[in-house]
Amino acid sequence: MSKDTVVVFDRVWKKFERGEVHTSLRDLIPSVARRLFVRRPPVEELRQQEFWAVRDISFTVERGRAIGIIGPNGAGKSTTLKLLTRILRPTRGHCAISGRVGALIEVAAGFHPDLTGRENVFLQGAVMGMARAEVKRKLDAIVDFSGLHDFIDTPVKRYSSGMNARLGFSIAANLNPDALVIDEVLAVGDMAFQQRCINRMEEFKRDGVAIVFVSHNLQAVASLCDEALFMAGELKARGRPDDVIRAYVTKSEAATEASNNDAIRIVSTTLYDERGCPVADAMQPGASLRLHVTFSPTVDARDVTFGFLLFRSTDNLLVYDGHFTNAEIGMASIKAGEPFAIDFRFKANVTRGHYHIATRIYDNILQRFHAIVSPPVVFSVDELQTWDGIAHLDVRPTAVTRADQPRDTAWARMS
User: Fold this and answer.
1) Numbered ranges of CATH 3.40.50.300 in the chain
2) In the 8-state DSSP scheme, what is residue 106?
3) How far is CA 291 from CA 275, 309, 348, in A?
């Protein structure tokens, strides 16, 4: 293990018991008795109603590095952060963070609802082991970053979830942590604040802070993190963020097939760039692409529609839904036993992010799908101009001086 290692998560397992809630003394006493006198099975075995939330997960994070954790709801991502910050204890394995930890795991977690925002800043500083004078010295910076000047002396129980997230991140980000542990709570903030948070985390990386970042925002994970984990209780993939995101999207949008998909089967799909090479890396907006799809029909079909659908993987937003009949693309009727291929040529006029394509064939006479596959390919677009949105408008602003303006323009008339 490197001397620069700040975060250690070593072969960690964590299990829970379904329905383990004790609302009365009558429920609690039998539960304690069972724990004291009933022989428990070996730690690696599960009793009835128990389940593994985290199974044999390992990773480390060094100074100035960031690791992103992605996966579906219930995958164990938040449990992993709670184990790291010692809110929970592992069933097996070892996890630790060296130095001061800035953590934002749940909205308003650690806040006292009856205390004001200002008082909660001092409370969180004390929890992190900071002297009151140090917190006071950083108070203005915390309030400025949060943008809560008008509400800093309001009890946090009256804060919205977005206001809680603003204050929580501002505290975590301004108290000089050695490690920053951030959960999906940034999603409740507005777009501009989220971008400020990402920019601040980039600054932390440059300053040598280790970051563990859990998010459903795949674009943020791809741009911020040096490594990514795809979790679903256990580790499904680990490596470069783009590779892990591709594995996650492919698994999450696992290939689906219509009940009669054997009628015209989609055999293979490959995405090529304008040079005719299979796409492997992120591309720039507007890139010319070609999706090559091979079909193997087992039935005759003379009137079909080919569907080409593009989705943004981050939120499954439909970006494009195009349909083309076999007559429109100059194709004769489909014959059983005669394989054929279709090239879908298109331009990736989309902003930065991760995308996947779905293809399908619809029989217009029988009124049913012959084949549906999603996603046959996954690709990513990389650019730095946009914050949000889908369409790439190729905006190219230029500065114009007053001397450059014709005298009859609106600008001249206004002067």
Assistant:
1) 5-250
2) S
3) 13, 12, 12
The superfamily CATH assigns to domain 5-250 is P-loop containing nucleotide triphosphate hydrolases (3.40.50.300)
Q: Which residue has the tokens 């203005």?
A: 140
**In whole angstroms, what is the distance from residue 187 CA to residue 312 CA?**
17
pLDDT digits (tens, 9 = 90+) for 137-184: 999 999 998 889 999 999 999 998 888 888 888 887 787 888 998 887
CATH number of this structure's domain 256-381, picked from the four choices 3.40.190.10, 3.40.30.10, 2.70.50.60, 3.80.30.20: 2.70.50.60
User: What are the DSSP calls for 19-87, one per residue?
Assistant: T----SHHHHHHHHHHHHHSPPPPTTS--TTEEEEEEEEEEEEETT-EEEEE--TTSSHHHHHHHHTTS
- The boundaries of every CATH 2.70.50.60 domain in the chain are 256-381
Say if pTM beats, i.e. exceeds, 0.70.
yes
Q: What is the DSSP string of 258-318?
A: -TTTTSEEEEEEEEE-TTSPBP-S-B-TTEEEEEEEEEEESS-BSSEEEEEEEEETTTTEE
- 282-341 pLDDT, tens digit per residue, is 899 999 999 999 999 999 999 999 999 999 887 788 999 999 999 999 998 999 999 999
- Residue-wise burial string across 258-287, b where 16 or more C-beta atoms lie within 10 A, e elsewhere: beebebbbbeebebbbeeeeebeebbebeb
Q: How far is CA 153 from CA 135, 139, 150, in A?
A: 16, 13, 8
The 8-class DSSP code of residue 80 comes to: H
* Amino acid, single-letter form, for residue 392: H
